[in-house]
User: What shape does this take?
Amino acid sequence: MRKNALKLAVLVGGILLAAPALAATCRTSGSFEQWREQFKKDAIAQGISPTVVAEVSPELQYDPAVIRRDHGQSVFQQTFLQFSDRMVGGARIPNGLKKMKEHAALFARIEKQYGVPAPVITAFWGLESDFGAMFGKFKILPSLATLAYDCRRSDYFRGQLMDALRLIERGDRRVDDMNGNWAGEFGGLQISTSDYYKYGVDYDGDGRRDVIKSIPDTLATGANFLLHFGWRRGEPWLQEVRVPENLPWDQADLAIKHPVKQWAAWGVKPAYGTLPADDLPASLILPMGRHGPAFLAYPNFQAFLGWNSAYVYSTTVAYFATRLAGAPVVNHDGAKRVTPLTTEQVVELQRLLLKRGYDIGDADGKIGNATRGAIKQAQLKAGLPADSYPTAELIDRLRAGQSRSER
Assistant: This one.
């Protein structure tokens, strides 16, 4: 799927926070039966044949288990290294290398056509479904119907359900094989119905785009999806680097780009190999702050974020791809100095930021882009290295400033 914080409920931030998703703040009105009848009429009005609508109608059922999963999503308190070690460790790399060798001719054909190399597609394949071992056991049509009826994200899932019917109409899927993740993702790459409909590729030439049973279709669809997000042929995506203590830390930001030669002038050095062309733009990202691992993210990293906007997840997939391409294990030494905040500490930090006028939304314990931006500004004002990473030291500085203002 387009993985906007639905997949794993992973958050866009430097750490993954253990906090259940917010309870619904809306109220679902009208009966499901009324909603279903209206949806079927709308589907026919949008060009879905009455035959397909009649065929799927028995599957359009309300499933309370899906709502419980959606409302009760929770995530785990892990740093980037904890998450990446778990997701990339064990047999994932040897299995990924084995898959790349097994399907070498297919990967070569895909790279020639789409420009996306085997390690990148394999990394998504491995993390999304363990190379096709875990597709999900939910019936997608009832799941999407339930989520489309529920008020929280009805527009999004209504579109997904409509495209699920289009997949059946087009002949890519049959009603009885619409199985996958509880939120409606399919196959080896866990792609959403809408992205499946838009970017699915028939790469084995059988007349169907099958991202469940066909490995050629699955892998080519992944490449086509990344190409949609701006993948640039022949360019790197992520590289571990070493950074000096006197780096201008406020420049370490995914939204800030400098030519590679500028980062080199500031003392940034490759952890392995060499840096690419001097003029290639790059952002310096610090998923655990200035003491943790450091990476230069090149333009192709945006394709990882397009696939899944969760910062830690995307960085992990990109790192996994570098490992499959031959990069060594990321440096863990500096991370020993990093103490991640608890959810309670993050909430306190957000409340302190809100009191200072930073527009970060609710104090929900989630480190998103707005909170990271506010942290950076608060660090600058407090005279701390502005690496956008939440720390107890910043909380102490903000507490002290609040105490002085209250005297």
User: Anything to note?
Assistant: Confidence is low (pLDDT under 50) at residues 1-24. Residues 115 and 163 are 28 Å apart (CA to CA). The chain is about 45% helix and 5% strand.
